[in-house]
């Protein structure tokens, strides 16, 4: 992966040479520091360049990049705009400004900048980024005036362009890649590859299709859905689920929900379907997601009830087999005793000599020890009868041994089956990290070292990602995927759900809880109006953290938001003072914005309220 990121950086480093001003030593060194995520060092080099060469637009642009990565969006916007004053037609500068406006929730201004990029440089990489961002805004606010204007303008923009050569980017779902080198391809040609090509061609087509915009993909949606039922390769099917989700249509949403509700699909595949849905998640989807979560929990409870019943049935069968085995073992012991008695008689008979019998001249019975009764030799008929009985007993012993062996085999199978059902009764709470669809911390994005200017962590045309890796106590892979799906839905419901969903969420937490997710669960409860985790959430705000950890930054911003809601209901001066401190002193703009919003809620609360927890 390190080599791939190096390649990414090299490509965009060279691209920077072509697109704009001179790459001085300060700019080069600053870019290298950014590639190593040493933002303070990078900032120092760009500031030196700005001082020594105030007409170099790159100095301001890359300073904007540094501030953007630090989530200091006000300063980022100021530097981008200064760069644009020097080079007014630079599409990359417009893109940086648009992304920053988007981070500051100034959607109309953001779309205007994105449209400028598309109109001025329609066939560039920057234009593809701009199209993706406009599509995202379009999905969340379809009726806004600016979106309608964009839809009209889009008619005049060359379409059917995406990229062919691709490279994996960290954090992506395995098998789905993001483009690097722009080449003209058509959706129609890729659909043909998908339908008729070899497995390799189908895989490549399914990956490349994700690079197209929703409006380009939408006409082919029925073919994508039809192909899902025919495709056998799981990787291709997962890629297609993301492509279907990207069309952002009601038909796509309904199909993805069908996948989530279909018991024939693995939880791993359902996780990808949920990722596809994240393109267009809205409050309207909350009820359906809540029902899916409730169904998952009900299924788990039913499985446990069925397991208890099945265990009782298996125990009864095992008891019956054990009884039969004991009887068979007793019979075997008797047969072995009879065999030993016959062998003893035949052994004594052998001492008389072959063919010896009573009254045979010249053959005397063997002398017996003094005090023991003299044993008479057996007649030939008696010997013959004993040997016949011996053969029958041997056969009976073998049959009885096989019968006992069958009992033991059956008991072993029943025992294994019983253990399987007993495992269903055990709630394996995860003590390690779990993979959860990252939706609550992806509102604002941060620059990755080596990516092109203004590119967020979620690279252009990159599908939704998962965080961390699964870990649990001897749980199966499918159990882990089921847990991941449930926790991801819980996380989403915290953002778009209703307080009345809490009982379902609580039942789900009881079934799928994970230590690493507990504070996220506490945040979900707080987002839905239950503040029993408020002290732990506040404690998180006062722990050390890296300001470059963008996921942590926005997790804290969400905590500040719910703390504001809490203080709008309950009085707590310490919490209010903490929010005021964060609004003034937190190093990250996202937390500052959330804190200022929270302060506005505190000011409107009634003056006389008793401090308490919800």
General description of the model:
There is one protein chain. 66% of the residues lie in helices and 3% in strands. With 614 residues, it is mainly alpha-helical. The chain folds into 4 domains: 158 residues, Tetratricopeptide repeat domain (Serine Threonine Protein Phosphatase 5, Tetratricopeptide repeat, Alpha Horseshoe), CATH 1.25.40; 110 residues, Leucine-rich Repeat Variant (Alpha Horseshoe); 106 residues; 174 residues, no CATH class. The N terminus and C terminus are likely disordered. The strands form 2 sheets. A two-stranded antiparallel sheet has the order 1-2. Strands 3-4 form a two-stranded antiparallel sheet. The chain is elongated, with a radius of gyration of 38 Å. The longest helix is centred in the middle third of the chain and has 68 residues.
In a nutshell, what does this entry contain?
With 614 residues, the protein is mainly alpha-helical. It has helices at 2-19, 25-35, 39-52, 57-69, 73-86, 91-103, 107-120, 125-140, 145-154, 187-196, 199-209, 214-217, 221-230, 234-246, 250-261, 267-277, 283-350, 380-425, 477-496, 502-512, 518-527, 534-541, 550-567, 573-585, 589-603; strands spanning 161-167, 178-184, 436-437, 466-467.
């Amino acid at each position: 992966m390190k080599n791939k990121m190096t390649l990414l950086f090299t490509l965009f480093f060279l691209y920077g040479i072509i697109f704009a001003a001179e790459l001085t030593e300060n700019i080069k060194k600053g870019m290298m520091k950014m590639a190593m995520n040493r933002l303070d060092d990078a900032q120092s080099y760009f500031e030196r360049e700005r001082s020594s060469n105030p007409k170099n637009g790159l100095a301001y642009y890359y300073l904007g990049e540094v501030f953007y990565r630090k989530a200091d969006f006000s300063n980022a916007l100021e530097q981008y705009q200064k760069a644009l004053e020097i080079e007014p037609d630079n599409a990359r500068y417009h893109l940086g400004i648009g992304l920053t406006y988007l981070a500051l929730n100034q959607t109309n201004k953001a779309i205007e900048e994105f449209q400028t990029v598309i109109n001025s440089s329609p066939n560039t990489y920057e234009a593809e980024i701009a199209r993706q961002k406009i599509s995202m805004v379009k999905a969340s606010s379809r009726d806004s005036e600016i979106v309608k204007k964009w839809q009209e303008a889009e008619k005049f923009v060359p379409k059917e362009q995406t990229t062919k050569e691709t490279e994996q980017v960290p954090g992506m779902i395995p098998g789905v890649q993001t483009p690097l080198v722009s080449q003209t391809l058509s959706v129609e040609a890729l659909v043909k590859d998908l339908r008729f090509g070899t497995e390799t061609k189908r895989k490549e087509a399914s990956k490349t299709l994700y690079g197209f915009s929703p409006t380009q993909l939408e006409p082919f949606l029925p073919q994508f859905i039809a192909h899902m039922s025919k495709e056998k390769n799981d990787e291709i099917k997962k890629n297609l689920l993301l492509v279907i989700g990207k069309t952002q249509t009601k038909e796509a949403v309904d199909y993805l929900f069908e996948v989530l509700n279909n018991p024939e699909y693995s939880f791993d595949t359902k996780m990808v379907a949920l990722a596809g849905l994240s393109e267009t998640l809205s409050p309207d989807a909350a009820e359906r997601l809540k029902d899916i979560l409730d169904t998952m929990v009900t299924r788990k409870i039913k499985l446990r009830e069925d397991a208890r019943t099945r265990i009782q049935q298996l125990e009864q069968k095992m008891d019956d087999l054990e009884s039969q085995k004991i009887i068979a073992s007793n019979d075997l012991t008797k047969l072995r005793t009879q065999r030993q008695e016959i062998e003893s008689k035949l052994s004594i008979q052998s001492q008389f000599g072959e063919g010896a019998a009573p009254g045979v001249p010249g053959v005397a019975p063997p002398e017996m020890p003094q005090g023991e009764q003299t044993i008479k030799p057996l007649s030939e008929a008696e010997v013959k009868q004993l040997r016949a009985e011996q053969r029958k007993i041997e056969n009976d012993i073998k049959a009885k041994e096989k019968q006992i062996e069958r009992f033991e085999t059956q008991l072993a199978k029943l025992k294994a089956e019983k253990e399987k059902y007993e495992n269903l009764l055990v709630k394996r709470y995860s003590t390690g990290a779990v993979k959860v669809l990252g939706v609550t911390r992806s509102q604002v994005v941060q620059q990755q070292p080596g990516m092109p200017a203004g590119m967020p962590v979620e690279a252009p045309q990159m599908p939704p990602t998962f965080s961390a890796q699964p870990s649990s106590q001897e749980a199966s892979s499918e159990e882990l995927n089921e847990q991941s799906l449930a926790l991801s839905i819980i996380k989403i419901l915290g953002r778009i759900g209703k307080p009345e969903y809490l009982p379902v969420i609580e039942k789900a937490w009881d079934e799928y809880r994970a230590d690493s997710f507990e504070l996220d669960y506490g945040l979900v409860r707080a987002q839905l109006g239950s503040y029993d985790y408020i002290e732990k959430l506040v404690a998180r705000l006062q722990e050390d953290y890296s300001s470059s950890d963008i996921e942590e930054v926005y997790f804290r911003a969400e905590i500040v938001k719910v703390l504001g809601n809490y203080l709008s209901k309950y009085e707590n001066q310490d919490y209010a003072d903490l929010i005021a401190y964060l609004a003034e002193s937190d190093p990250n703009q996202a937390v500052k914005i959330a804190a200022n919003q929270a302060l506005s809620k505190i000011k409107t609360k009634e003056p006389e309220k008793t401090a308490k927890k919800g």
